[in-house]
Design goal:
The protein has about 550 residues and is an alpha+beta fold. It has 4 domains: about 35 residues, no CATH class; about 170 residues, Aldehyde Oxidoreductase, domain 4; about 160 residues, Aldehyde oxidase/xanthine dehydrogenase, molybdopterin binding domain (Aldehyde Oxidoreductase, domain 4, 2-Layer Sandwich); about 140 residues. It is built from 14 helices and 23 strands. A hairpin with a 4-residue loop joins strand 7 and strand 8. The longest helix is centred in the first third of the chain and has 28 residues. The chain is flat. About 45% of the residues are buried.
Length: about 550
């Protein structure tokens, strides 16, 4: 139960400490207004967050305690989009769980059990696909546990399982009026070695839903309202140092000469560390780390090994636009339906248009941050971070340290926004913390400033699009041709197909290098794509030009 602070208590504390933390302010505000409002509004009793599962495990997803508390594992990460509520709720629906007795626990990084079907089994939350990908499997998992409860209740009551039904957290035998709560069944339940088979047609009909599609409070909201929600940026661990990183101005460059004399004399600075991609600073406080990093800005020279030195994004956009419009420029065909090239000259009228997309910043509210604690022998590491992929957040540190992934413990935290930026496969902000912790021999918390976040953002790449449409005498669309000049990173993302107007997608010759692009629909950049090319000045000057043609024939 949250203990609210009064304004008087905050004032008393401020006498001892001039500055109030965000959490103190939020808790004080909640004590003034929100506590009463929440207590009055009982239209939907809500599930709550928990750190550990409790009770008897009836499946890898569900545990039930003797008091009827149900623990449901959540495989998706939470960045404000609601997956921490929606996925467990799907299980609870088919389980017929009392939502007020549900406790939700973030699932461990075990892809074989909790992996996202929409991302090849990775534990990865992105692209607004979590509910779509997990929906059917989670319903079946919930129904399987319900079947186990019914089978055990049938044995206990000595009746056929077919005569039993369920109400929230209860198995009911209508003929005799007898009932067994889920907690009572958990006390004697036998769990089969193989889960019972549940066919899709045995799942609930939408008209039977009690939770899905209903007004259910999100489990993360109370903590966000009263200030008790913990993000990675809030975490403190004993004996912790703070880290900041001065990154190369161009991706692929490395520090050449480092003059750290000015940085070393900053009060609180502990150590300057050469990194493969920049210079790290270890300090007693975050402000000392930032100040020492600032002192290094004019004291480090860089190799010219990055490929984007001299790249001008304005000139790049103009070249993209020219390539997109130049139909004579060679292209790799993406897909084709009908014969749009033959139909276009027959059109009674046509329309041409050009569209340009500039770089787009993810702009998540919470800047990137992570804590890493590497063991003295560097054979294990514990991490505290908000990440969109538990898989990459454990794989990348394991690869870096040369250790089994089982030796990486991830404390998966709430995220203050993600939009794809916390889902990049190299998890740069986590790697920063791991490298600096290994060097320091102590836990290290790395925090990026907003300036860091913008300077080194994984921006949606620039692109230029040339469209031509042909119409028949009645004004009906007869053919459609699209050419898109775009960076090769964005070419890996896609939009849905074009409906009845089918497309030919082609990739004109790359400016400087080539890459394999898997088949799909119209590739186009999106703000959530995690490009491996970093920063406004850190773009490769290579491009792909896609061409799409379509006809209604």
């Amino acid at each position: 139960m949250t203990q609210h602070l009064t304004i008087a208590s905050l004032n008393a504390r401020s006498a001892r400490r001039q500055l109030l933390s965000r959490r103190q302010v939020m808790i004080g505000a909640a004590g003034l207004s929100f506590a009463i409002a929440v207590g009055v509004n009982r239209r939907a009793a809500a599930a709550v967050l928990a750190s550990e599962r409790s009770g008897k495990a009836l499946s890898p997803w569900v545990s039930i305690a003797l008091d009827g508390t149900i623990t449901i594992m959540s495989p998706a990460t939470e960045m404000g989009q609601g997956s921490l509520t929606s996925l467990p709720l799907i299980i609870a629906e088919e389980l017929d769980a009392d939502w007020s007795k549900v406790r939700i626990v973030p699932a461990p990084t075990i892809e074989a059990i909790y992996g996202n079907p929409g991302f090849g089994g990775m534990m990865y939350t992105a692209g607004s696909n979590a509910v779509t990908s997990y929906y059917r499997p989670l319903r079946i998992f919930g129904a399987q546990v319900r079947r186990v409860l019914i089978d055990n209740a049938a044995k206990k009551l000595g009746v056929p399982a077919e005569e039993l039904s369920t109400e929230p957290n209860t198995v009911v035998h209508a003929k005799s009026g007898r009932k067994l709560s889920y907690g009572e069944i958990a006390a004697f339940a036998e769990v089969p070695e193989k889960p019972p088979e549940v066919k899709p047609e045995a799942l609930k009909k939408p008209s039977e839903f009690r939770l899905i599609g209903k007004d259910v409070s999100r489990v993360d909201l109370p903590g966000k309202v009263n200030g008790s929600a913990r993000y990675a940026i809030d975490v403190q661990v004993p004996n912790m140092l703070y880290g900041a990183v001065l990154r190369a101005p161009v991706e692929g460059s490395v520090p050449d000469k480092i003059d750290d004399a000015k940085a070393k004399v900053i009060a609180g600075a502990v150590k300057i560390v050469r990194l493969p991609y920049g210079v790290g600073v270890l300090a007693d406080t975050p402000w000392a780390a930032f100040e020492a990093r600032r002192a290094l800005t004019q004291s480090v020279t860089w190799s010219r090994t990055g490929t984007a030195w001299g790249f001008d994004s304005d000139k790049g956009m103009e070249r993209f636009a020219a390539d997109a419009k130049d139909v004579a420029r060679g292209a790799t065909e993406w897909s084709k339906i009908g014969d749009p090239r033959a139909e276009m000259p027959k059109a009674s009228s046509s329309m041409e248009a050009e569209y340009r997309c500039d770089y787009a910043y993810h702009a998540q509210m919470e800047p990137l941050n992570a804590i890493a604690s590497v063991s003295p022998s560097a054979d294990s590491v514990e991490i505290w971070a908000g990440t969109q992929s538990q898989t990459t957040a454990t794989e990348a540190p394991a690869k870096l340290l040369g250790i089994p992934r089982e030796k990486v413990k991830l404390n998966d935290m709430l995220m203050g926004g993600g939009f794809g930026r916390r889902g990049n496969r190299d998890v740069d902000f986590i790697i920063d913390a791991v490298l600096l912790s290994k060097e320091a021999g102590r836990p290290v918390k790395v925090m990026w400033t907003r300036e860091d976040d913008v300077q080194n953002g994984r921006f949606r790449p620039i692109s230029a699009h040339y469209l031509k449409a042909g119409f028949d005498p009645s004004g009906k669309l007869a053919a459609w041709h699209i050419r898109c000049a775009i960076s090769r990173a964005a070419a890996r993302t896609s939009l849905p197909c074009l409906g009845p107007i089918c497309a030919v997608m082609t990739f004109p010759i790359n400016w400087s290098n080539s890459s394999i692009v898997t088949p799909g629909c119209v590739p186009i950049p999106c703000a959530g794509s995690a490009s491996p090319l970093i920063g406004l000045q850190r773009r490769r000057s290579s491009t792909r030009s896609h061409s799409s043609a379509a006809s209604t024939r």
